[in-house]
Amino acid sequence: QVQLVESGGGLVQAGGSLRLSCAASGSGFSVNAMGWYRQAPGKQRELVAVITSGGTTNYADSMKGRFTISRDNGKNTVYLQMNGLKPEDTAVYYCSAAVTRTWPPKTLEVWGQGTLVTVSS
């Protein structure tokens, strides 16, 4: 069984920075793409950024230039550096990973429990 554990959320003033981390743990699997999504109150969950195992990244337009996604494949960990935070960035941020189970072979999508980011004005 694979688990994702997020950390790094909290309260920050507008213009500030936060770094989120998400570590995948378990055995008998390999991690493929990893990503961050967020869900603001009363809104649908939306993509923030994704990164492949080879390091190719993709960002939602509103996050480009402010957020940076990176990963440490040796630690099965993905990071989200968030700079220039705005009140509208307030949301629960979820980590997601596409993992391949070794046996029986199957590709699964796994989600973390979410971490709250609150940006005050």
Say how many strands there are.
Answer: 11
The percent of residues in helical segments reads under 10%
Number of helices: 0
**Main β-sheet: number of strands, strand sense, barrel status?**
7 strands, mixed
Low-confidence stretches: none
Order of helices and strands: EEEEEEEEEEE
Cα-to-Cα separation, first versus last residue:
40 Å
Strand content: over 45%
Mean pLDDT: 95
Please give the radius of gyration in angstroms: 14 Å
Classify the secondary structure makeup into a structural class.
Answer: mainly beta
Which geometry do the CA atoms define? elongated
Kindly describe this structure.
The mean pLDDT is about 95. The chain has strands spanning about 5, 10-15, 20-25, 30-40, 45-50, 55-60, 65-70, 75-80, 90-100, 105-110, 115-120. The chain is mainly β.
Task: Indicate the topology.
Layout: E1 3-7, E2 10-13, E3 18-25, E4 29-39, E5 46-51, E6 57-59, E7 67-72, E8 77-82, E9 91-101, E10 106-111, E11 115-120
Please tag this protein with its features.
single chain, 121 residues, mainly beta, seven-stranded mixed sheet, four-stranded antiparallel sheet, 60% strand, elongated
